[in-house]
């Protein structure tokens, strides 16, 4: 079964279940835990949608697998993502998310043009290494 569908079912059951962490009959406070669950569910689906759009955009660029491989041929994708060769898909995703959060150009926008350009270059390397390993 799809992981997203399980999250959705779990969130709906939690929100509708009469025994919450904070009872729902306490107006306002009782709905706070339900709002937190709904927020995290919304955040999960938003991230999935953004990842899907990003993969659709990269597919529309017309790059073939050979082109992607030649982009990362000079750099070892495992070294770029700072993981061991033969890492599992979960480890690759975790490394990608950690490095993407650190080097995303929007995160360093306030630090100046040069640092922003370096972060953008590094982020592109991280993205290419991730795409190469996940294909």
From TrEMBL:
Its main location: membrane. Coiled coil: none annotated. Gene3D superfamilies: DnaJ domain. The chain crosses the membrane at residues 28-45. Residues 54-73 are annotated as: Disordered. GO terms for cellular component: endomembrane system. It is found in: Endomembrane system. It holds the Pfam family DUF1232. It comes from the Bacteria. Residues 76-135 form the J domain. SUPFAM superfamilies: Chaperone J-domain. Keywords: Membrane, Transmembrane, Transmembrane helix. It is a multi-pass membrane protein. This is J domain-containing protein. It comes from Desulfosarcina widdelii. The lineage of its organism: Bacteria, Pseudomonadati, Thermodesulfobacteriota, Desulfobacteria, Desulfobacterales.
């Amino acid at each position: 079964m799809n992981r997203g569908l399980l999250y959705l079912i779990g969130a709906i059951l939690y929100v509708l279940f009469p025994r919450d962490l904070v009872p729902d009959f306490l107006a306002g406070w009782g709905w706070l835990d339900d709002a937190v669950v709904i927020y995290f569910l919304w955040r999960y689906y938003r991230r999935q949608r953004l990842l899907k759009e990003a993969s659709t955009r990269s597919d529309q660029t017309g790059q073939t697998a050979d082109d992607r491989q030649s982009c990362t041929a000079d750099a070892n994708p495992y070294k770029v993502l700072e993981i061991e060769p033969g890492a599992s898909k979960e480890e690759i995703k975790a490394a990608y998310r950690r490095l993407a959060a650190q080097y995303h150009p929007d995160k360093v926008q306030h630090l100046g043009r040069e640092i922003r350009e370096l972060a953008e270059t590094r982020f592109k390397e991280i993205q290419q290494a991730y795409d190469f390993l996940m294909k």
